[in-house]
């Protein structure tokens, strides 16, 4: 993937050239209702993949520590693909060099800057991860981390951490996307974003781990948007009447659709069956509820797991 441009170094004049991004920088779209949750997730994934590339692997000859990841340093293109820019403060280190930390002068955009970096002057790859986490919260909350918020003048990452701790993060979610977000997508996204801004560097994930979790969040969301309309309108109420409602809370909507197509067992030994297509339902009841009076000379026995048969709606 391409994240920068070329560098001209003629006659002691250094010029960095970047690929033209028709939509400009991400910070202009944070509070834009037209930027859906799915689009925002894909942008987040692009950013995390870019950072993964910069941080390199064991076999990479060099590692790039960006030092200034922020929403204003993310460029967007016609297809909403996102690429990292703003490499003016970046440090390039050989992979062979000990990267536990690099002593460096404090730099970067306030609000996105790792507080440990500011306190200790130690620069690490985990400092970039903190900045990535701040951008993730920008995208979720529709606000910039560089702007002080609330009466305590907290920056967004610290306010988000506080709300996450008290299970109130949903209060900060941008209103323009709040109703779109599938619960499991939100939980997965919020957890990895919170881990990125953890106060202990060793508890922060790698860029690769962030990519994995963001893709899971997107998978939950796309699954929800495709399959939610196919489920019975009252499927949540039906689930609550089932024998084990909690078992359905974390599965994908496609799997839930397949379960409803086959039948879901209720507490009263009934099954509600949802058909493909028009979502019409037949009620199915256990054969153990029926007996034959005077029509069979043999003794009838109740079977613990009898077959179920369908009765048409009346």
From TrEMBL:
The lineage of its organism: Eukaryota, Viridiplantae, Streptophyta, Embryophyta, Tracheophyta. Gene3D superfamilies: Transferase(Phosphotransferase) domain 1. Residues 1-218 form the Protein kinase domain. InterPro entries: ANXUR1/2-like, Kinase-like_dom_sf, Prot_kinase_dom, Ser-Thr/Tyr_kinase_cat_dom, Tyr_kinase_AS. SUPFAM superfamilies: Protein kinase-like (PK-like) (SSF56112). This is Kinase-like domain, phloem protein 2-like protein. Pfam families: PK_Tyr_Ser-Thr (PF07714). PROSITE patterns: PROTEIN_KINASE_DOM, PROTEIN_KINASE_TYR.
